[in-house]
Amino acid sequence: MDWQSEWVRVESVGGARRISNFCWALILVLGALGFLLVGFSSYSGRDLVPFLPPQQIVFIPQGIVMCFYGIAGLFPGFYLWCAISWDVGSGYNQFDKREGIVRIFRWGFPGENRRIRIQFPTSDIQAIRLEIREGIPSRRVLRIKLRGQQDIPLTRTGEDLTLGEMEEKAAELARFLCVSIEGL
């Protein structure tokens, strides 16, 4: 949902609902459940995993270790599913030249600080900063450089934009706000 008029520009920012997060969450939970099934199978002596007879794994110590790995694997898996369902990190950037205000909104984890709002005057913007690090892993982040304060990121970490697209986005925003670009 990117929208722009003469006075207002709104950019949407994606959060945790990415295909890679869905894949990692699914892999983690299914793998952890597999470890738990093997551990419980060795404890109960029942064939809970069709291709692995329970007699091949002794409960102490292998079965206990498998149960531990299964339980330990469920925590990051459920963490990712929670982040995906709450869409942590999503929000928008609003630049309003008429009011002279920039509003940045992001969704966080539930609790007191679920809604993250940052607001500052456009006169505090010194430049649009483009941080580019090539290699493995590559990093491309668009930031607002404020006078006397730390930079505020405008794009999410791991956003899959090419170098040209990132430069174009920085140039459009700098043109709209009438500020310079740094880091090219």
TrEMBL record:
Organism from which the protein derives: Helminthostachys zeylanica
The protein's name in its UniProt record: Photosystem I assembly protein Ycf4
Membrane topology type: Multi-pass membrane protein
Keyword Protease annotated: no
GO BP terms: photosynthesis
The UniProt record lists the keyword Thylakoid: yes
Function according to Swiss-Prot or TrEMBL: Seems to be required for the assembly of the photosystem I complex.
Predominant location: plastid
TM spans (from-to): 21-43, 63-88
Keywords attached to this entry: Chloroplast, Membrane, Photosynthesis, Plastid, Thylakoid, Transmembrane, Transmembrane helix
Subcellular location: Plastid thylakoid membrane; Plastid, Chloroplast thylakoid membrane
InterPro entries: PSI_Ycf4_assembly
Family that this chain belongs to: Belongs to the Ycf4 family.
Cellular compartments per GO CC: chloroplast thylakoid membrane; photosystem I
